[in-house]
């Protein structure tokens, strides 16, 4: 993830945000609740996306008479600041944010639903699902990120392996020193990176309902979860050894970049490191280890509307009319190249085979749960995986973890 500079800076091309002005101000100051012209719409963004949003903001100002103030913030501060400031009337009308902010936003009552209308058809379904909570859509999604299989084409060619076993066999036939490496965050375990393999056994962390929303029902218990745990142990340090707690993020990337490993699972943020020494790569969907489709986590970026905004209709119009265009989406992509959720732009940038590979993997994926309960899951989940990889009793460790998670989330 790219680090953003510190401070809150009003974008020079827009009206400077003065202390006390906000999306929660009165209709006479900030437009009216019926969506009429005049007033001001306040948008929080980070440095990377600010220039792209400015273009849509200028068109919105010219056509509606409503000024748009872009307030530049550190991305890592947005979740807490939004939760703390919206109830006081000091928050914005709109903020950029990750979809996994959603659970805490809904719990705090600081975010409003949004009607995507026919624009939903232009957005990848996994992105809409990511911003769906209890059957309601709470944001305008625009970008994705996910994990995928990355292979050294000088060793194993470009053809995607059909399964885990096929992948290992191809690497061994090519004479690779290490057939496969994957980041386990050292001794902590990395359930996020491993999730594609886990879902291929039909063992999701939480069960999704028909609307795409996550329930709090644990989905990784029972025979499916036990089968994944047994597989993980069989390929861990006491088994065939492809998965090891000695591999952290940097070690993983170094082993692949040096040509030592034929395959890895990584995200688009790692491509520069993986190819730093000249290795040629192909990106493909993660192969199945358990017989079902490998569904990695998908992270989604988008825009939220404050529940306390006096300009909700104007905010929705800005998002679903002025940002929901090919030009606006292209500008966002060019400013901060993340996988587009906008289908026409995704098709356009898929001329880059690396982008195409990650988009193909995302098409198989599922949103990372935005439930507040996830905060009680990560550490227990990762620790169980690390214990299994190191040679612990796989089924016992897994079932203990599931019981502990169920107790932790109540």
TrEMBL record:
User: Is Oxidoreductase among the key words of this record?
Assistant: no
* InterPro entries cross-referenced by the UniProt entry: Maltose/Cyclodextrin-bd (IPR006060), SBP (IPR006059)
Signal peptide span: 1-19
Q: Which UniProt keywords apply?
A: Signal, Sugar transport, Transport
Q: Which PROSITE patterns match?
A: PROKAR_LIPOPROTEIN
Do you know which Pfam families this protein is assigned to? SBP_bac_8
What's this protein's family per the entry?
Belongs to the bacterial solute-binding protein 1 family.
What is this protein identified as?
A: Extracellular solute-binding protein
Q: Which species is the source of this protein?
A: Microbacterium thalli
């Amino acid at each position: 993830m790219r680090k953003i500079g510190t401070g809150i800076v009003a974008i020079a091309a827009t009206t400077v945000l003065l202390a006390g002005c906000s999306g929660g101000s009165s209709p006479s100051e900030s437009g009216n609740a019926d969506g009429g012209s005049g007033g001001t719409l306040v948008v929080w963004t980070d440095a990377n996306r600010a220039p792209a949003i400015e273009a849509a903001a200028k068109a919105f100002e010219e056509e509606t008479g409503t000024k748009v103030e872009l307030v530049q913030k550190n991305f890592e501060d947005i979740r807490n600041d939004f939760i703390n400031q919206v109830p006081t009337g000091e928050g914005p009308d709109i903020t950029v944010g990750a979809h996994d902010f959603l659970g805490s936003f809904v719990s705090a009552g600081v975010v409003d639903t949004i009607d995507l209308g026919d624009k939903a058809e232009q957005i990848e379904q996994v992105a809409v699902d990511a911003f769906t909570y209890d059957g309601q859509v709470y944001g305008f999604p625009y970008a994705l990120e996910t994990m995928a299989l990355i292979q050294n084409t000088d060793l194993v060619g470009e053809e995607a392996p059909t399964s885990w076993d096929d992948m290992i066999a191809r690497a061994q036939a090519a004479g690779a020193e290490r057939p496969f490496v994957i980041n386990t965050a050292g001794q902590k375990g990395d359930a996020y990176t491993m999730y594609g393999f886990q879902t291929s056994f039909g063992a999701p962390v939480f069960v999704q309902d028909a609307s795409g929303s996550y329930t709090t029902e644990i989905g990784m218990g029972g025979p499916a979860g036990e089968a994944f745990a047994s597989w993980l142990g069989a390929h861990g340090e006491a088994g065939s050894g492809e998965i090891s707690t000695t591999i952290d993020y940097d070690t993983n990337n170094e082993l692949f970049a040096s040509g030592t490993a034929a395959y890895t699972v990584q995200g688009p943020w790692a491509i520069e490191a993986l190819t730093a020494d000249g290795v040629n790569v192909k990106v493909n969907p993660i192969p199945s280890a358990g017989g079902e489709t490998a569904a990695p986590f998908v992270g989604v970026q988008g825009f939220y509307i404050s529940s306390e905004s006096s300009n909700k209709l104007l905010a929705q119009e800005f998002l679903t009319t002025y940002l929901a265009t090919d030009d606006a989406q292209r500008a966002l992509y060019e400013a901060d190249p993340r996988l587009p959720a906008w289908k026409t732009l995704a098709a356009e940038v898929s001329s880059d085979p690396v982008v195409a590979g990650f988009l193909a993997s995302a098409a198989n994926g599922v949103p990372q749960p935005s439930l507040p309960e996830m905060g009680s899951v990560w550490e227990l989940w990762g620790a169980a995986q690390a214990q299994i990889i190191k040679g612990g009793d796989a089924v016992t460790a897994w079932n203990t973890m599931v019981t502990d998670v169920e107790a932790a989330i109540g």
